[in-house]
């Protein structure tokens, strides 16, 4: 990456204060800035660093007033936080703007690939796969037969997509994610666990992102569905026939059992567990390590604990739990006193 200060200002709708020809090639934290790097100042706690940083260019809010001389060229914008985030997005696009098909990939003759597709080394693409334009497929990805992947989606190294699945536009699947593995369904017969065939698929809609090593199981029949805008953190497990509503976010190590329906705009913290066949209402917030054993049907509520309790009830219960030793001692004393009286 190589840009001048005035080019960056143009991207961000900002104004340059200093040398507009200053060249930057890298990004940096303001406290670790070096010549040739660009940084930003949004948090007031980091203001002292703007007077000592060696970064060549710093993005600041328009309202910033320097109290001492600043050596860096400044780019003034409405929001330094948002502007830097936008710059990171541009940087990411440049970094990942790869194209071409490696000779070391294996692509079925019946597969159809769109324009400007990148297929890296040791990628395997099965029969009747359809891949949209600008899709980026990194090394050692496997895509099963009859799968569809829409425009602008990125599959990072080691992603495994089983057959018959559908992935939408602008999705990002990070390394190690598995889509369409069998759901965990077995019947007891004569003392043995007999597998129930899993013949459904997975549908991932547009703008979904999964972290590393997520697992999304195919449906027994029908579809496991991840709706538009859902974001999964690392190591999230979505079981067969689960449906996750639009724009829900789920943090690491959460497990959702089969046929559970999670609403839209939910916020689910890390290490949450949900039993199967329950419904989670829209806008629900689940705190870390919450255990959901029955449906939560009231929209917009927050829950904690095992089993899940509304936050106010959980906090009252926690106070009682903390005082249990004292309460037990008082009850024991009352019982002894009562016996003495008898």
Write a short abstract of this structure.
The chain is of the alpha/beta class and 342 residues long. Helices cover 16% and strands 30% of the residues.
SSE layout:
Layout: E1 3-4, H1 5-12, E2 15-17, E3 23-24, E4 26-27, E5 37-40, E6 57-61, E7 73-77, H2 80-95, E8 100-101, E9 106-107, E10 112-113, E11 118-119, E12 124-125, E13 130-131, E14 136-137, E15 142-143, E16 148-149, E17 154-155, E18 160-161, E19 166-167, E20 172-173, E21 178-181, E22 186-189, E23 192-195, E24 201-204, E25 209-210, E26 215-217, E27 223-226, E28 231-232, E29 237-238, E30 243-244, E31 249-250, E32 255-256, E33 261-262, E34 267-268, E35 273-274, E36 279-280, E37 285-286, E38 291-292, E39 302-304, E40 309-310, H3 311-322, H4 324-341
Parallel strand pairs: 4-5, 5-6, 6-7, 8-11, 9-12, 10-13, 11-14, 12-15, 13-16, 14-17, 15-18, 16-19, 17-20, 18-21, 19-24, 20-25, 21-26, 24-27, 25-28, 26-29, 27-30, 28-31, 29-32, 30-33, 31-34, 32-35, 33-36, 34-37, 35-38, 37-39
Antiparallel strand pairs: 1-3, 2-7, 22-23, 39-40
């Amino acid at each position: 990456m190589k840009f001048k200060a005035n080019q960056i200002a143009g991207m961000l709708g900002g104004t340059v204060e200093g040398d507009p020809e200053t060249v930057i090639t890298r990004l940096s934290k303001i406290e670790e800035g070096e010549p040739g790097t660009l940084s930003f100042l949004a948090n007031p706690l980091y203001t002292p660093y703007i007077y000592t940083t060696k970064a060549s260019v710093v993005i600041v809010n328009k309202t910033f007033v320097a109290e001492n001389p600043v050596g860096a060229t400044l780019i003034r914008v409405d929001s330094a936080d948002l502007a830097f985030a936008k710059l990171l997005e541009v940087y990411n696009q440049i970094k990942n703007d790869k194209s071409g098909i490696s000779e070391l990939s294996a692509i079925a003759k019946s597969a159809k690939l769109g324009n400007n597709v990148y297929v890296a080394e040791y990628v395997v693409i099965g029969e009747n796969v359809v891949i949209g334009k600008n899709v980026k497929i990194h090394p050692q990805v496997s895509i099963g037969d009859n799968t569809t992947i829409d425009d602008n989606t990125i599959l990072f190294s080691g992603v495994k997509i089983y057959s018959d699945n559908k992935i939408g536009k602008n999705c990002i699947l990070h390394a190690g994610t598995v889509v369409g593995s069998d759901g965990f369904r077995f019947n007891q017969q004569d003392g043995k666990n007999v597998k129930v065939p899993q013949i459904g698929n997975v549908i991932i809609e547009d703008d979904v992102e999964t972290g590393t090593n997520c697992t999304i199981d195919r449906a027994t029949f029908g579809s496991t569905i991840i709706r538009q805008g859902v974001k999964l953190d690392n190591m999230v497990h979505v079981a067969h026939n689960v449906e996750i509503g639009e724009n829900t976010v789920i943090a690491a190590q959460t497990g959702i059992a089969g046929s559970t329906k999670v609403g839209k705009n939910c916020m689910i913290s890390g290490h949450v567990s949900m039993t199967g066949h329950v419904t989670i209402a829209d806008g629900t917030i689940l705190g870390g390590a919450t255990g959901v054993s029955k449906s939560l049907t009231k929209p917009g509520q927050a829950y904690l604990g095992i089993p899940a309790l509304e936050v106010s009830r959980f906090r009252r219960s926690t106070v009682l739990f903390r005082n249990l030793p004292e309460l037990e001692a008082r009850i024991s004393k009352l019982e002894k006193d009562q016996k003495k009286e008898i």
